[in-house]
Amino acid sequence: WYQRRVRGKLFSRLPQRMNDQEARQRIDNMVNFIRKDAQDNANKINVKAVDEVNQEKDRVIQAQKQKITTEFEKREKQVEVQKKIAYSNELNKSRLRILKAREESIKYLYQQAKEKLVELSKDHESYKPLLKMLILQGLIKLSEPSVIVRVRPEDKHLVESLIEEVKKEYEEKTNSKVTLSVDDKLPSANSDPSKPSCSGGVVFSAKGGRIMVNNTLDARLELAYTASLPHVRKILFANSAGKGKGKGLF
User: Fold this and answer.
1) Given this model, what pLDDT does residue 227 score?
2) Which of 104, 151, 117, 101 is nearest to 222 (CA)?
3) 125 Cα distance to chain centroid
């Protein structure tokens, strides 16, 4: 249609003297010019389209690269956080293991000391003056006129042999008289922790049991253990504390 229209216009403008061949030649030239111009425009449009496609492709690629980089950095931070958490957990577990080992060491020493007390109570030569001191201390602390001295069955005879001597010394120290009676209701030493046990010593009862004083070897050991625990820990774990290990755990 376009070519027919162009040819119609061209034919209308041709001089009357041009023959048909010349007219057709001129028309063909015009048509070729138009085709070339259209092709050039098409090429320009195509080049522009390709350029726009490439730019869009680059934009998409850069956007994807940035997205991947951001995601990688995010995951890298997550991994770093997880590593720190895992390290902290392992460090805490290590500290707990150290705590447990130290507590077990101290409990072992306590148990060893308790066993030594049981052995001591079997040696009457050493145990007798200790019993006398424990009874005298308890009586002075109570300062009651009538006291029951409670001991283990195996210690009853030994304590009874000390009563008069203790009463005399008590009266000299306090200028007061005291009436003493002995019973053997304390349990004997027992290695079973679920059962009552006493390594030795005495328990005092006055005013019908309303006043009680525990002066057994176990009670004295517990007092000494509690008082000396910081010092014992310092001695046992001085090296690790000096190196900064376990600092602040005790």
Assistant:
1) 83
2) 117
3) 51
Q: For residues 152 and 200, is the Cβ–Cβ distance under 8 A?
A: yes
Q: What is the pLDDT of residue 129?
A: 94
Q: What is the dihedral of CA 91, 93, 95, 99, to 10 degrees?
A: 180
Strand 211-216 relative to strand 201-206, pairing: antiparallel
Q: Bridge-partner residues for 215, per DSSP?
A: 202
Q: What pTM was estimated for this model as a whole?
A: 0.56
Mean pLDDT of 125-150: 93
Torsion over CA of 212, 217, 218 and 221, rounded to 10 degrees? 110
Residues 6+ positions from 178 with CB-CB distance below 8 Å: 139, 144, 145, 146, 147, 167, 170, 171
Find where tokens 């525990």 sit.
214
The answer to whether the beta carbons of residues 131 and 158 sit under 8 Å apart is yes
Whether 81 has a pLDDT exceeding 50, the answer reads: yes
Pick the residue with more confidence: 25 or 250? 25
